[in-house]
Design a protein that fits this description.
By secondary structure, the protein is α+β, with helices and mostly antiparallel strands. 50% of the residues lie in helices and 9% in strands. It contains six helices and four strands; from the N terminus they run E-H-E-H-H-H-H-E-E-H. The chain has a four-stranded mixed sheet with strand order 2-1-3-4, with helices on both faces. Strand 3 and strand 4 form a beta hairpin.
Length: 200
Amino acid sequence: MPDESPGAPVTIWFDPVCPFSWNTARWLRAVADKTGVVIEWRLMSLSVLNEGREMPPQQQSRMRDSERIGRLMAAIRDQHGNAGLANAYFAFAERYLDRSEPIDDRLIGQVLDAVKSWDVTIDVLSDSSWDELVWRSHQAGQDALGETGGSPIVRINGHSFFGPVLTAPPDPEMVETLFDAVGALGAIPQFAQLQRPRSG
């Protein structure tokens, strides 16, 4: 798996099946579209993070999806780099998270078509040889954070944190405002945590 882009000011470690990561990813892509900032897209794994934990059946199913799609995304990033991973992730999440489509031949085919990846096949979902690359990328995110953290982990100009956790992408006029605010908080070494109740 290629290393992150040299000098990339923003990095996001995300699990492709995590809805909160999906909101953060759409926000960061909007930031990139508006400002030209470079986003480095890296994998983390909720399956790795939660390995060995007791979970209800629905969450166990989501962890299996995390493992399988992590392998797919690792293979795509290995062959198509940062941009390929981003395009594959957006193609996947729009179907899996927004439309609740099942992981099947059709969905995987559409993801591969989105990045014009002819060498990767659906068989990669069961190919454990990709797990090492997923683990290494996941661990890089944990190391950047400095402690155990969930998805997403974001680094802005060298400052890493879990989140921001968004219930939806911000309105277009607030995209840059949120980015500037998060970056400013991250740059303050004494800042540790800010949380408020989720609405509705």
